[in-house]
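TASK: fixed-backbone design
INPUT:
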């Protein structure tokens, strides 16, 4: 069965991140709040949506993105999954809503 390959949109290009950055995220290396923000934008979710899909508060996410706190433990694992499989995180949001 052949699946249709959808045309990339401007929004897809705006969300894109370089491959080396994605590999870094997949390995669990988040050096700054801007890394978390870049991953969230790559996944294509707002702060509220990303936080909900991750099962964390928006306050926690904002603290990460603004560099006041850093993710640790299970949160790093979830961020790694989001980097490797962004669609899974978006699907998780749909199942939560």
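OUTPUT:
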């Amino acid at each position: 069965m052949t699946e249709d390959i959808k045309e990339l949109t401007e929004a897809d290009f705006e969300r894109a991140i370089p491959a080396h950055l994605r590999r870094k995220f997949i390995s669990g290396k988040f050096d700054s709040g801007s890394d978390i923000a870049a991953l969230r934008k790559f996944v294509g979710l707002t702060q509220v949506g990303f936080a909900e899909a991750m099962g964390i508060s928006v306050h926690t996410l904002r603290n990460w993105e603004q560099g006041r706190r850093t993710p640790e433990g299970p949160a790093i694992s979830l961020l790694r999954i989001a980097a490797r499989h962004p669609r899974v995180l978006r699907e998780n949001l749909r199942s939560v809503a």
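COMMENT: The chain has a mean pLDDT of 89.
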